[in-house]
Amino acid sequence: MASVAVDSLIMKLTRLLNEEVTLLKEVRKKVEGVKNELSLIQAYLKDADAKADIGDTSSHAIKVWVKQLRHAAFHIEDAVDFYMIKLAPHPSQRHGVLSKFYLAIRSVVPRHRITSEIENVTSAIRKLYEDKQALGLTLTPSSSEQNVVARTRYDLRMGALFIREDELVGIDYAMNLLTNWLLHGEAKPTVISVVGGGGLGKTAIVRNLYNKLKEDFDCYAWITVSHSSKEEHLLTTIQTLYENDGKSYPVEGTRGKEVDMHTLIEKLRGYLQGKRYMIVFDDVWEINFWECMEFALPADTNISSRIIITTRDRGIAEFCRRSAPVRIHELKPLLDEDALKLFLLKTFQFDLHGCPEDLNELSERFVKRCEGVPLAIVVISGLLSTKEKTVSEWQKVYDSLRSKFSSDPHLRSFYLVLLESYHDLPYHLRLCLLYFGLFSQGLSIKCSTLICQWVAEGFVNENEMFVDQTLEEEAEDYLAELIRRSLIKVNVVSVNGKAKSCRVHDLMHDFIVRKCEELNFCQVVNKQEFRFHEWTRRIAIQNIDERAFTGNNQSSVRVRSCVGFGIEQLSESVLKSLVSSFNLLVTLGLEYLPLDHLPEAVGDLLNLKYLSLRKTKIKTIPRTIGKLQKLQTLNLRDTKVLELPVEINKLVKLRHLLSYSFGSSQHQQHLFGFSLNGGIEGLTDLQSLAMVNTRTANGDGIIREMENMINMRKLGIVELSEVNGNGVCNAIKNMPNLCSLSIKAAENCRFLALQELVDPPANLQRLYLNGPLKELPEWILKNLVKLHLIGSRLAEDPLPKLKGLPELMELHLDHFCESEEVHFKCGWFEKLKDLTLLRMNTLRTLKIEKGTLSNLEVLRLGSSPQMKDAVDIQNLEALKNLYLIDMPRQFANDVSTAIKKNTTLDISSPLLPPRRRPDHPLIIPRRGKMVKISVFQGIALAAKDMVKLYLRVDSRRVYVGSTSLLRPASLTTFANVENWFRFRFPDSEFVNHLYFFKLPMLPGIEVNFLRLCFERLMWRQPP
């Protein structure tokens, strides 16, 4: 597929021609010419991509043609980037007559080179354009091609249409819910939408309901929409309704001819008028599908008619709300138990003895790989049912799943389901989806990281943006659309419903990796040698030993992005060699790598826009950083960098500057920022600045310079003195788009002086104040979503003033007042979901009236030694998680007996050992290896002595017991352990279950409370 490469290049050339850059006349003319040539051929690429993927008789020749075009696009991109780097002005270079003369002399060789290369490539592209006719590439697919596509889609859906009821596993809840909506819902036409990713069973469930309930309606029809036109599905609806009613088709002679839409709509309305109908529109892809159907369906207000839609796009269901009530059911993946049941049913349906015991473990691994998607389970089961039932044979299948994904006839049906979703994406969303191929399978990725990388890569189409929208906000919309289309899974959601981290389904990741290999989009290097393909544009280096880099003299001018994962050792010389190899690098992600020094050679990456050193041990940033004139993002979070060089002020395109870390002592968390000796006067494009230390010699100047930061969205300040409070207020009032504000007072600051902020930013939604306050600022906005008050030490309880924040969802109060009683009254904080109350030394009573905090899901109470009376926990109807931190024993006992069954209680105590220090070596358990751990048992209620437990990692299970014999006295499955062990044991296989043996359970506390123990366990070698 060349459309991704060509579309991306055209967008880049357009941006290049529109920007104020030094393009000499001759070069500009060549660039405009090649852009026009590519635009001519662009129209045929969709046809070429479709033919190559369908696999018709000409697919091999077309694939070669597509590959040649893609390489030509790469050649042009490389030539342009090299030209721009050669002519990049030095930061200190002035614009004068001598500078222009010097530029003209210096540009002779690069200009000759780029014009020569573009001429050669343009000739090749012109030849490819002429070859399109010989390959049968057209703007409109032929009828035979359309038939092939339609037949492929029909074949994919046929299995779902004819699935037996006994093969529908784990759908009882969905069936009961949908049945209730269909038969007992509102007495008016209602749209019921079943939404979910490909292969989740939407069609199978709805078809089963349709067959059962259709006779309860006056008339009914099943319409497979897919990508058909409005006229076609209107005609099909009319024909199906009449045929089901035993009548002749009322619009004879219209098929295949021009049809009057108005006539069709009138005909359908007339037929349905006064009838109770059920019409299913299966596999809807286009939002405009509803634009004609909403007029064709009569709105009889007293008839319980039902329109059912199955779709992968939630936005389609939402679109129907404009003219009808809508009920949406998002289909979820199967639970582990149901997934395994379906797997065994399909794999061993003809085996009398069922699954052999030695295949139980591999069965669980296959099921885990499918992540609860029924179609994935069915196709893999179909493949395994044809194989010998031996461990060796099944292991071969498991190891080769990715390579067989698109070719094996058993697996290809699921591959085509994913391919449908991929082809439905516009090209910029394809780029964003393919970017997940850079990350390890199953890895949860921070959404903010993705967004900054997409912007740096140039994926955002600026022509489609709103005038007042930033590139990052447009990228957020891209991410939201991929989530809406069920292509990306959200892992962590913030309190206001925004995605914080995400990932793709394991088999979707396999699909993406295959596509990345075809497109040379990216390459994952994870073997014991460092070799990459000639045309690779992006590289992910995963789990490679440093020795793999030794002696490697490769230089890849084509690589634009490099990210590293799981590299245990990386010396300065190796990193310098690596950086020097990628001259045109745009993004460089070295997060979590064992780095303590950044080489000065990083300053030679003049194309670099994104640099992340998060979670490394780097202490200083070289002064050569000032040469990176295109840098947009510099992420130094959780590093040891406390001071940035003055050259930072030269990075005039910097949009995000993040550098802060956290430390803890005696159960208190400390926030450390960074100092800027050179100021920030030149950084007027900054959108994120966190956390800048203003307790420096030029702190006053930095605060004054902030007044020019009109683009600021996120601002964090630490070590703010009392005298600088008014200056900060003056700066903030000039930031109309500020969304997040964090201020931490200096240690000797008497109070944060923030009362002078008369006109605060209207968009401010997140406010974090850490330091003493005389009184609560009057300007606190009513649209705040998050509010943290830490160390405020107010004389009076501020809750009566805060109760007027109608949008507040998260409230964190830490040592915020000196009251003996805190009272939450009925009607306060109706949207609050997350509440934290910590370090209230004088607090004795916490009252929660019945009916208040009706949406509260998470409550944290901690370090309040005077608290005796039990909280009215039973009044919190929606509570899901309760955390008690260093609370009195009697209080914890009373609360543990009062919580509801669906509430998880976590208790922590100062008796627990501290978290593992960064410099303490972590022992990675291997298969079958015994590791002794020391951990406290019983936590706050029963922790007296340290007990020794044994932990054994055996394949995908972890066993913990009080003796080495591990004889099971009781068995408990510990949910949510997978993510934690995946993080803690990166080199071991993922853990499915955690089994506890002979561990005393505390009254009223669920087993989940033991999670905290294992988060703080201390590792050491067994004797």
UniProtKB/TrEMBL annotation:
UniProt KW keywords: Nucleotide-binding, Plant defense, Repeat
Start and end residues of each NB-ARC domain: 173-349
InterPro entries for the chain: Apaf_helical, Disease_R_plants, LRR_dom_sf, LRR_R13L4/SHOC2-like, NB-ARC, P-loop_NTPase, RX-like_CC, Rx_N
Stored SUPFAM superfamilies: L domain-like (SSF52058), P-loop containing nucleoside triphosphate hydrolases (SSF52540)
Domain Disease resistance R13L4/SHOC-2-like LRR: 571-884
Pfam families, sorted: LRR_14 (PF23598), NB-ARC (PF00931), Rx_N (PF18052), WHD_DRP (PF23559)
Every Disease resistance protein winged helix domain range: 438-512
Record-annotated Disease resistance N-terminal domain positions: 5-93
Name the record gives this protein: Uncharacterized protein
Species this chain originates from: Stylosanthes scabra
Lineage: Eukaryota, Viridiplantae, Streptophyta, Embryophyta, Tracheophyta
